[in-house]
Each structure stands twice: as structure tokens, then as C-alpha cells.
Amino acid sequence: MPSVDASGMELYYERAGEGEPLLLIQGMSATQMAWGQPFSSLLEQSFECISFDNRGIGRSGPVAEPFTIAEMAADTVALLDALEIETAHVLGISMGGMIAQELALAHPGRLRSLTLGCTYCGGQGSQLMDPADFGGLVEAMGSGDPQRVFRAMWELNLSPSFREDEGRYAAFTAMAESQPARRETIGLQVQAIAAHDTSARLPGLSIPTLVIHGTVDRVLGVANGHQIASLLPEARLEIFEDIGHMFWWEQPERSAGLIREYALAPV
Q1: What pLDDT score does 83 carry?
Q2: Which domains are present in the chain?
Q3: Which of 78, 116, 204, 209 is geometrically suited to a Cys-Cys bond with 6, CB 3.0 to 4.6 A?
Q4: How far apart are CA 149 and CA 220, in angstroms?
Q5: Exposure pattern of 235-247 as b/e (b: 16+ CB <10 Å)?
Q6: Do 218 and 210 touch, CB atoms closer than 8 A?
Q7: Helix (H, G, I), strand (E, B), or coil: what is residue 150?
């Protein structure tokens, strides 16, 4: 299995496709499998895609101590260094979008373009998950029943219209159960997310940025997308009507097309 020592943290990664490098950063509890084959295969037609498991997740090395979003961003820089990639396009979703923000702020010269999906910057006006929804997810995780966890994640992450086709649930659960995350690791990720706040620093970021958000996102509401786009001086906001948190899962063709168009547009 390909892995690198990223400043003392073992990170599992995969490379596929041809073209300019695109680093994909996943969200809370998710492995690189959560990109899904339809979306990944579309991106690989235009980019060399580098996807990986965040610290403590999937096939990356375990963690026991608290960490910050900025430290996870440092992991991504160490990964690029280990793979001898000087600059890359970056796509970060949810917690991965928070990591991508810290990466761009700390190392703007390493990014060719930035796409932030269904994410959050902290500060006044930002919104984390509704307490009732979060409580339901915690209860499901505490039950010890994987099927309850998968069902709770399915309902939170996908829009009602997408979930009307129950046949789609099998692919979602296959992804989720392929490498389930430890509850302790998810707890550390929640701590890192709660402390995340880039709102005062984003106006100083001049990297061209595509912001994507669904209007029925129950994990990180659509107000977060509007806020981030308003703070960034070079942002393009794309709102997906009636789409949930995992917009790339619901609309892979549209999502990949937007990223390709934006990242590869002539300067």
C-alpha cells in the first residue's frame, strides 16, 4: 500500500489520472473512498488526482493526541513534498475544506487553484451542524450499531430527493463500511473543527477560489458557502439547489465539470 512519512505521520495515498496535479482533501470520518468512483473517474480524465486518508483515518497511521486543522494542513504540505509535487490544484470538502483554507493561508505559493466545497470558516455568521442533528448522530455512534450510524449519515449527508431512490443506499453503505473510523478519532476531529476559525484571514487570500454548496446541506448549512465567498477577494460561488452536503456524490458530472472548468481556465 502506498504511504509516506509526512513529518512523522504515516499517510496512505493514491495517485490516478493524467494532467496537472489535483490534491483532494476529505472531510470528517471519511477516507479517500468517499470521493466515489463516478466523481473520481471524471476528475482523472483531466488531472493527476492525489487522494489520501487524513491522519488517524482509514489506512493512515493512528492518532491518540489532539490535533488542529492547521496541523492537518501541514500534513498535506508534507505529503506534497514527499511526492515531489511543488504546486497543485486543491479540492477540500467539509473538514477537508477547512484544511484547504489553512493550507492556502500558510502556503499560497503551493496552490494553482482552490475549490472549497460544503465547508466552514468559523467566526461570526458561520454555522455548524444543528444541535439536534448532531445529537442524533452522536446517539447513533454511541449505540455501537453500524447500521444505525450509516443510516444517520445517509440522512444527514444526502438530500431528500436523492434519498428517494433507496437503491442508492447500498453504494453509500459499501463506502462507509469499507474502512469505518474509530469513534475516538472522530472525537478528535470534532475538537479540531470546533476550534477552526479563518474568517479574519480569508480576505487576505488572493488565490482564485471556487466555492460550492448545496442549499439543503444539513451538516454545514448553505450560509457558510455564502459567507466564505463574501470574504474571499477572488471567489466564484456555485449554489446547488436542493442538493445536500455530499454534492459531488449527488451530482458528480456537474461537480467535476465545474472544478475542471475553473481550475484549468486560462490565466
Answers
A1: 96
A2: 3-129+184-263 (3.40.50.1820)
A3: 78
A4: 18
A5: bebbebeebbbbb
A6: no
A7: helix
pLDDT of residue 1: 62
Q: Which residues of the chain carry a pLDDT beneath 70?
A: 1, 267
Nine cell digits for residue 34: 468517499
The tens digit of pLDDT for each residue in 16-45 reads 999 999 999 999 999 999 999 999 999 999
Provide φ and ψ at 212, rounded to 5°.
Answer: -120, 135
How many whole angstroms separate alpha carbon 174 and alpha carbon 163? 16
Q: How far apart are CA 52 and CA 58, in angstroms?
A: 9
Grid coordinates given for 223: 450560509
94 near 64, Cβ under 8 Å? no
- Residue for grid cell 499560497: 108
Going from the C-alpha of 91 to that of each of 39, 151, 218, 242, the distances in angstroms are 13, 27, 21, 22
Query: SS3 of 189, please?
Result: helix
CA distance 136 to 138: 5
Pair 250, 217: CB distance under 8 Å? no
